[in-house]
Amino acid sequence: CFGFPLSIFFIIVNEFCERFSYYGMKAVLTLYFTRFLHWEDNFATAIYHTFVALCYLTPILGAIIADSWLGKFKTILYLSIIYAIGQVVLSVGSINDLTDHNRDGSPDNPALNIALSMIGLIFIAFGTGGIKPCVSAFGGDQFEDDQEKQRSTFFSLYYLSINAGSLLSTIVTPSIRASECGIHTKQECYPLAFGVPAILMAVALAVFVIGSKMYKKVKPQGNVMLEVSKCVGFAIKNRFWHRSKEFPKREHWLDWASEKYDKRLIAQIKMVLKVLFLYIPLPMFWAVFDQQGSRWTLQATAMNGDFGFKIQPDQMQIVNPILIVIMVPIADSLVYPLIKKCKLNFTPLKKMTVGMFLGSMAFVAAALVQVQIDNTYPVFPAAGQTQIKLINLGAVPATVQFQPQLQSVDVAPNKETGYMTFETSKLQSLHIISATLNKTQPLDLLEGERHTLAFKWNPTGINSSLVKDNITSKPADGKSLVRFINNFPFTVNVTMGDMVFGELDPLFASNYSVVPNPGWSYTISASGPQDTCTVDSKEFGYGGAYTISLDDCVENKLIITHFEDIAPNTVHMAWQIPQYFLLTCAEVLFSVTGVEFSYSQAPSNMKSVLQAGWLLTVAVGNIIVLIVAGASAIQKQWAEYVLFAALLLVVCIIFAIMASFYTYVDPNEIEAQFSKEEKEEDKKDQDYNEKEAEAHSKM
């Protein structure tokens, strides 16, 4: 088809669906841990990076199975089945109603949900990791030796399908996750957010199977990684047995394998080990890079995602693939040629060093954003303290004196004060003066709590009500809270949308309730003895807490006043774009260049060894994050960002020093030299045999 084997179209569609499945699931994973399983941020981060590390450890296993036992086709087929089962198990594990027998909105047996989720993730890790080194190589096997151009086009289409699947899924699955679903109670729709990737993985498997009769299936030919491991192991063992001084030293420790392995293999392994030595500092970059899906997503939950339309916190990850698509061609066609024109020797290792530096700066930018977020957080009372806010619901200004003689505050009609902090033991009562009336309000305040005093002047006296707020922290995950105060002289029944707040007596306040979608407007209804009055609310900010007073009813239209108890998220998600930009620049310089450099410095039959080493650095990087998240005593998130930035900067300097001692080689020249020497040896052997035969014939 257009000069291509028909089978490769099945492989490309399979890869698109598989990448959609993986990145779609991974995009919502951190919020699933924190919002559904209710794990705290550090533990959720540790489990997330454990999963990613496992995804990058299993490719080594997949490559060995494919090359030494099952072959690429069967390895992809069997592991894809495990992969699809894992996605289904994860989706089932996220069903809230699975064990919610009392229908209160919370699983009665959360251990079952956790167990299913972990089993599903382990299956997914083995599936996606195991097929990772096989699919692209299997696609390459479909071409004949004279189809080099078509093979190159295939790899371009292959990587385009990866980016397309990643991009599309990062838009779709967070949007599905943010919608609500459920049998008994409506909550964030994780079953469908994981279910869609499960369906796509099933489609990927079906497409792959449909094309099975068209594939060229190369038989397993042995795995070079095992051969390398055996050679290295023999060299170490042989050197150990000949460690005494009576045995002469050899030029390189690998030369101790020469008794069993040929010189060409040993020389090839030496080239590979030189590159692998440079890999030692690289995991620190991946420790920083892969926090886009964990720490940076959690950071976005405390930010304002209003771009004229609502961006979900887990959708901000889409900035990276978008920038990659833009910046890779810009770097190749504009930046690098410009640097070359300036006659600067911008070698691959120098590019990687600059990439690590930019990765460090990305986390400095993240720390600066985190400081701005932290500055917007409310200050809650410490031990021995209490906080109180005043709301004047009357039409007459008032003065409130805090007794004994602590301070005095003026409160305008239908206005509020901010929360004021006092030593609990010192604040005994409030004296309210409004017009010609006054009232002393005794206080029984709880230590470490916030309280609200609502009061109202009327001709017969001053009515007041003290309410405990029951909020000890800013609403998490971008949720908003709302409560109502009845400013009518009679009892009213209050609803907002589908939420029922019940009957409220005069000047009494309801408990806070979570606003399902803070960006929406809801119809507020107050039913009194005679009439029902309604009005549409304002949109609630994300991460805020509000008190709404029900003031009056004019022609069945409810008159209300909004009071802000906790300010919503005000730092905009757009402020994350600079850190994503810096990290994407780092990825272009580090990752793209790193793979290219590694392949250019390795013999053709050793490229899979370097691929395994490269993937191993990603796994180790994620292990670093889970160790820091699990063991760190750092309380402030901005300080952790600075820690990672500093560590990467130190590693960047170490890598620059190591790179300065590296000598670039051309593996093709070295292999050509060995081929020439082998031909000369063969010619000598042939000449010797001919002479022997000639001498024998004369006898």
From TrEMBL:
Reactions that this protein is recorded to catalyse: an L-amino acid tripeptide(out) + H(+)(out) = an L-amino acid tripeptide(in) + H(+)(in); L-methionyl-L-phenylalanyl-L-methionine(out) + H(+)(out) = L-methionyl-L-phenylalanyl-L-methionine(in) + H(+)(in); L-lysyl-glycine(out) + H(+)(out) = L-lysyl-glycine(in) + H(+)(in); carnosine(out) + H(+)(out) = carnosine(in) + H(+)(in)
One Gene Ontology MF term: oligopeptide transmembrane transporter activity
Signal peptide as annotated in the record: none
Gene3D superfamilies: MFS general substrate transporter like domains (1.20.1250.20)
Region described as Disordered: 675-699
Transmembrane segments: 46-64, 76-95, 111-131, 152-172, 192-211, 271-289, 318-339, 351-371, 612-634, 641-665
Top-level taxon of origin: Eukaryota
One of the protein's GO biological processes: protein transport
Gene that encodes it: Slc15a1
The entry's keywords: Cell membrane, Glycoprotein, Membrane, Peptide transport, Protein transport, Symport, Transmembrane, Transmembrane helix, Transport
Database matches in PROSITE patterns: PTR2_1, PTR2_2
Pfam families linked to this entry: PTR2
Protein name: Solute carrier family 15 member 1
